[in-house]
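WARN retry 2 of 3 for item q-0093 after timeout on previous attempt; input resubmitted unchanged.
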Amino acid sequence: MFTPKPARYRICNSTRCPLTSFSFSFSFSFCSFSSFSSSTTSFLSSTSFSPFSSSSFFLLLPLPPPPLSSHRLLWASPPSSPSSSTSSLPPFSPPMSESTPSASLKRQKPLLRHPTELRTLGFTSLFYSCLLTLWWYDTALFSAGLPGWVVFAVLYGCLLMLSAMMAVITHNALHVPVFHSMALQKLFQLLLTAAYGQPCSIYQPAHNRSHHRHTGTRQDLMRPTKLQYRRNWLNIALAKEHSPGPTSGLKLAWNFYRAQWRVRRELVYTFFFELASLVVLMVAVFLISPRKSILYVYGAQTMGQAFINSINFLQHDGCEIDPAHDGFNHARNFTGWFFNYIFLNNGYHTIHHMKPGLHWSVLPAHHQRSVAPHIHPNLEVPCFRKHLWKTMWTREDYLGRPITPGDSSRDWSLLDEAIQFDTPVVYETDAPAESKPHAE
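OK item q-0093 returned
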């Protein structure tokens, strides 16, 4: 008596439309069955074999099973009979849901978290191109006479401008990573470290944890009340020297990385690797050419640090002290298109403090929707250049009242209070959605 072994049938080989795949496979199987049955009619008629005997008859379709990594299988069981056993059959495997695709079907993530980060990479390339051009060809420019000096002045001005833009890029990258891959992100942070002149991971305790979460209080190392010169242009120019200040910054970094050693040690390794790389770089370029290292490397780094601290002073001086960001008057916004193009929307500062996990490219839209209808109109400045010129000579709050260092309207203490680093959140995108918005 002929009792064929149970066979497995390919029912569905598509992750998108199971019914369509089933119809196609069934039609193909039916055609195969028709051709096969016509060729075996003589055999069935010439023998006493009956397909309706007590034993089950199964037609084996020659459909090889697809790879498990790229197809789905449904196992067909034969009708129950005394002569057939299903104990050796594999278990039934239900179709996989779209939420749990196989490893080979998972969509590959793009390199960049947001396509506008191409501008970030473009500005970074321009910075290093300008720096290397000056490093290699400055002697030739000097020997070319007046035209060479003009070209040198233009290139050096571009280098200083790009160094300010690199400081903003460092700020953005330590809020929301540029790359999906953390390996690429850490490699990019090495480039930012070389351009900024400090391990860029120091932004995590000094800016993300101190300035953003304790804006304007004694736990904010960047608070504008630490600048107390009578001439406000000195406050703007020397903001880097007083906020956060060398002693306070070192203490903050020590406390932060000591806490992170217990909860997230890779951050400590990243910081010390950036620090070691920066030291090696600075020593190497100084040994190669002391003049060029001071003029092009250290000069650009100093410019970037000075700019980011000065712009922070201008954005918060004279605003309300609101560390919880319940209101809208805790930061000043520069809304000019050119400023925000070259500085990657850094002018939209109120919404950045309210939702620090938002990607910089979406800040203008969120500002118009959530901030502009509620903020005081004096805190929306369309022209940065005019505001800078005015502020250099007069220091006023956002209501137009003069600010005098040492008066009773503000806390002018230079003492910084310690911060408890009790959570492992570092990038704003690490935080839960209900507490810190993710990047869009």
